[in-house]
Amino acid sequence: MFDPAFFHITMLFFIWGFVTASIDPLVPSVRTVFSLTYAESMLTQFAFFLAYGIVSIPAAGVLKRLGYPVTIIASLAAMAAGCLMMPLATHVRSYPFVLVALFIIAAGITQLQVAANPLAANMGSPKGSHFRLTLSQTFNSLGTVIAPLIGSYVLLRGGVFAGVAVNAVSRDATLRNVDVQFLLITGVILLFTLFLWRVREGLHPRDEIEEMQGSPLAAFGSLWALFGAGAIFVYVGAEVSVGSMMINFLHQPTVLAVDYAQAGRLLGFYWGGAMVGRALGSLLLVRVKAYRLLGGAALFALTLCLLVTQTTGTVEGFAAIAIGFFNSIMFPTIFTLTLERSSAPAPATSGLLCMAIVGGAVLPVSAGYMADHASLAAAFWIPLAAYAVIATFALLASSKVVKSTNA
Question: What class has domain 4-398?
Answer without folding.
Answer: mainly alpha
